[in-house]
Amino acid sequence: MRSKCYPFHRGIPPKGGPGTSHCGGTSSPGEGSIPFLNLKRRNRDDLQGLSGPEAVHAGHGLYAPVVGGNDAVVDEAAAEEMVDCAMANGVNYYDTAWGYHNGNSEIALGKALAKHPREKFYIADKFPGYDLSNMPKVQEIFEEQLKKCRVDYFDFYLFHNVCEMNIDAYLDPQYGIHDYLMEQKRRGRIRHLGFSCHGNLPVLKRFLDAYGKDMEFCQLQLNYIDWTFQNGREKVELLDSWHIPVWVMEPLRGGRLARLSDEEAAPLRAMRPEEPIPAWAFRFLQSIPSVTMILSGMSDLEQVKANIATFQMGVPLSSREMDRLLAQAQRMVSKTALPCTACHYCVSHCPQGLDIPSLLALYNEHAFTGGGFLAPMALSALPQDKWPSACIGCRSCEAVCPQQLKISEAMADFASRL
User: Distance between CA atoms of 398 and 406, rounded to whole angstroms?
Assistant: First the structure.
């Protein structure tokens, strides 16, 4: 199960009340328990509080245990145990999506939550725009999602995965996605509307220019690597200018930041020997004022307990710790990333007309991650004659590169990795 949402502003009553823990001890969601999130609606004059219950205590996203290694077959008993434990410990925000577990996440989550009073949890779902064939089906999909989740409304609903590949379709009025979702919000079937974004900064700007006035939150991939590696700082600053709070996904970057090598972990252990390595990633995010929710991936009961313990502490980084953590992030990235400065001298010398700086940025992402979906997703928005495989190895770009990068070798390696 991918657990999502560990906010950290204290002192606001959570949705629901105290409960008896199903996984050890009792839960009193007041001062000293998991910190609370005070969600605020963006308002041009002053940030007015949301109507109705205001506190999201903490939450889960249903990437659940599966049976026999088959991602489409959810272990419903284990999923229910995790949800029961989470609810008992004050976790009250549950995130799912159309495509998780081959379409079965919503069903499993709906079943697991059915035993709990509706007023004691929040549920979030998303329109699956990552698949362009879904664009004409917003009404059909939304109605089916309500049925699968066994609810009459979603507390939070998102445009899923705004990126280079789908931004044109999301903004295309022929599909009416924005209009339909706004109508559901007016009808009370969506309480709060937002979006998730894996796209680059220009994509984020386009979406905000079109729909930013109606967005109440943005879910971003953010962690101490991506603060600079994926322009996280600039994305957060842009969202700040719209007064849109940041909800964080991939705080551990797919688990990479929980599995540091001894060499990578040494500077952190020198500062806080007893601190678990994953806690550094969460404390980094707790130090960013714009971040109001952290969505952390977990797939078993022990991980649920560990994350609950981490967020009970709520200790942001000191300035010294922040400086050293970001310096360590840079050292980690520099082992695989090419130091392109995006001077664009190479572009005018490329006979294929390739956007070499952009391709190198994607190459760095793909190489550091060891694969993943971000680079292929971004490339899918380009014609194939602008992919790295279009490089003919003439090295004209290298002749003018101030950094003396071996660009043709990087393009060949990138093409082979894809």
Answer: 6
Instruction: Write the CA distances from 401 to 311, 340, 352, 395, integer angstroms.
Output: 46, 9, 17, 10
Is the Cβ–Cβ distance between 58 and 7 less than 8 Å? yes
pLDDT in tens, 110-134: 999 999 999 999 999 999 999 999 9
Query: For 213-266, what is each residue's pLDDT tens digit?
Result: 999 999 999 999 999 998 999 999 999 999 999 999 889 888 889 889 999 999
How far apart are the C-alpha atoms of 363 and 412, rounded to whole Å? 10
> How far are the Cα atoms of 6, 33, 186, 214, 379 from residue 292, in angstroms, in the given order?
9, 17, 25, 18, 31
Q: At what angle do helices 177-186 and 138-149 cross, to 10 degrees?
A: 40
Distance CA 97, CA 78 (A): 19
Residue with tokens 């310096």: 327
Q: How many whole angstroms separate alpha carbon 89 and alpha carbon 67?
A: 26
Q: Report in angstroms the alpha-carbon separations of 229 from 285, 365, 368.
A: 15, 8, 10
Phi, psi of 238 (to 5 degrees): -65, -45
Listed residue (332, 353, 351, 356) closest to 406, CA to CA = 356
CA separation (Å) from 345 to 202, 203, 353, 392, 403? 21, 24, 12, 18, 11
- Identify the sign of the CA torsion 130, 132, 134, 135: positive
Q: What's the 3-state SS for 35-79? A: CEEECECCCCCCCCECCCCCEECCEEECCCCEECCEEEEECHHHH
- Residues in contact with 39: Cβ distance below 8 Å, sequence separation at least 6, in sequence order: 49, 50, 54, 55, 56, 192, 216, 217, 245, 292
For every residue of 7-30, DSSP letters joined together read --B-SSPPSS--EE-SSSSEE--S
Q: Does this model's pTM top 0.90?
A: no
